[in-house]
Amino acid sequence: xxxxSREMTGAEMVVQALKDNGVEDIFGYPGGAVxxxxxxxxxxDDIVHVLVRHEQGAGHAAEGYARSTGKVGVVLVTSGxxxxxVVTALQDALMDSIPLVCISGQVPTPLxxxxxxxxxxxxxxxxxxxxxxxxxxxxxxxxxxLHEAFRVAQTGRPGPVVVDxxxxxxxxxxxYVGPSPVIEHKSYQPKLQGDLDSIREAVKLMSEAKKPIxxxxxxxxxxxxxxxxxxRELVQLxxxxxxxxxxxxxxxxxxxxxxxxxxxxxxxxxxxxxxxDCDVMVCIGARFDDRITGRLDAFSPNSKKIHIDIDPxxxxxxxxxxxxxxxxxxxxxxxxxRLWRAxxxxxxxxxxxxxxxxxxxxxxxNSLAYAPNKDVIMPQYAMQRLYDLTRDRDxxxxxxxxxxxxWAAQFYGFEEPNRWMTSGGLGTMGYGLPAALxxxxxxxxxxxxxxxxxxxxxxxxxxxxxxxxxxxxxKIFILNNQYMGMVRQWQxxxxxxxxxxxxxxxxxxFVKLAEAYGCVGxxxxxxxxxxxxxxxxxxxxxxxxxxxxxxxxANCFPMIPSGKAHNEMxxxxxxxxxxxxxxxxxxxxxxx
Amino acid sequence: xxxxxxxxxxxxxxxxxxxxxxxxTLSVLVDNEPGVLARVIGLFSGRGYNIESLTVSETEHEAHxxxxxxVTNGTPHVLEQIKHQLERIVPVHRVVDLSIRAxxxxxxxxxxxxLALIKVKGEGDHRVEALRLADAFRAQVIDANxxxxxxxxxxxxxxxxxxxxxxxxxxxxEVCRTGVAALNRGPDGM
Lengths: 592, 190
Prior knowledge:
heterodimer, A: six-stranded parallel sheet, six-stranded parallel sheet, 23 helices, 17% strand, B: alpha+beta, 35% strand
């Protein structure tokens, strides 16, 4: 179809544009203002529509789909509440740089502004939570806008876009033009190639480093699998230690010898200490988020910093960097690897021996240790067992937000990119279940597990019904401690252990709930039951809700308390009740 | 005041700003499409940046381009962020910091002018005084009857501020100002 043009209705154009942009699956929910598009979907077989139970679920499912495939996730919702329900997912995608195209119906153009039934100012509401959005008032603009939407969503720093289409425009007839292979956008032109002189300068600084560290983020994943491949090559060439943000897990394999684990608030001791003490920091596709830096004025005080990012506004935003390199991680890494090979940098960098010795001492601190328990399942133990029993499979992991998310990040090792879907920037409880659904739709034969908390999972649990309808055998592995665990942990740290509204008194019976949805419910209450139950969960070819009853009051350590620096971590073996109670001073209590 | 200056309101701005505030004039070339001004203004309010003055009008009709002139203030670090954040907006073509550009060319600041319409009661002795001062400020009378004048005045912001404050005791009724229009000196465009 590309390049050809013919007469069709606006609704036909939407479906045709989806096909022309390579879309195979979309997530949505019908309503009055999108019925013409749904009518077109009904009359074709190329695009599979997944009917969710709530539009937020459609958004997160599309995010999971996008993150596990590298493709654009597509959402279709109606006007008014359809559009407002998807806002959380749009902001989530914006903060985590996930490419989404959300098509929303709108009341007919003559009714816009009249407070019509199911009318809302969709472009107004979604303006700050999208990379860009359009209200299409003329049928003549529709094909161009649809193709532009896909381009804006997936190029540069990826992000969500909204195309709001009034119902009369869906019915109107006009000339459809396919996507143009020539990019003609005048204002929007993201820069991909990094400045070679800056890269050369960076390579020189790296080759002279005595205590270097590589710190990577979601940008490496977003850049595509080639970027992860190049990153591995760079680590091998330089023998630098490497850590990553929550978003970047999997770009470098957890089994790699230079891997130090995740950094930041709940990162490992070795990663955070190395960040603090390093002399050269190479930040690749990460953005110095406050969860990563801790106290800014004590963040890595003695290092020269190199920052590779595609978004100029990320550079020097929170932390001053010495060598900024503006460009796509993949392109810059390619140049960096080439220049490193061509440079006189030693193949086996002996100068780093002392640094590695220091790192090994930090590693020996074993900061993820926890006290095992024979009678109660420790959440960390559950993560370890889940990892051991699924690591050799074709597994994708999603999570909700809270303690379970941090334990998953700490204890589940990722070997490949695009295998780990979690809400990093926005921290959206309720993300993981619909995201798992989206992943499973994209990878029907893979094992897809949502590592969940009992509180988070109830925010979007209605999507179990969607999973049953589409025979998507997602596994919802709930670390059930009856509390909003991370809220409770912060109340213990900050508010004198006054557990204000963080305990769920009326917890549903998750096993019965699973059965009510037509899924399989499993439960494990003792450490001894865990392996068999996990094995059963894996073998069931149906959606599963796994109620894993864990120690109620376990805390997630190590932790950099708010307002503290990387070298002021609270470690599990030092976290006595007294230390926990006094970990955060008055000033830190004001922080989030 | 912008969010960066609250000492411990949020972990995002934990470091105290020690840099001095500066005033800058930015020229932003945008596609003249619905909502583009809302995007720019929303960015400023959403991220806690200041707007001292803002003017906008389509300047190239054929190309559907509008030019937005924003006078803002902030620390050099915040001002750099503002520029980059503006550049992220999809229909934004170019952002030029006219103040920096002027300095690079050896000028103190860009050429900045504002127009104001000022309605003054002007009765009795005040009537003569208002007219005399308007003449000294090169303000034009564009409407008048026996009970009022409307003056049109163009000039630098400081001149307009001064004229308004002088008119206040003479019976100032209302003021309408356009905000700052700015260009840099010399033959080059933005």
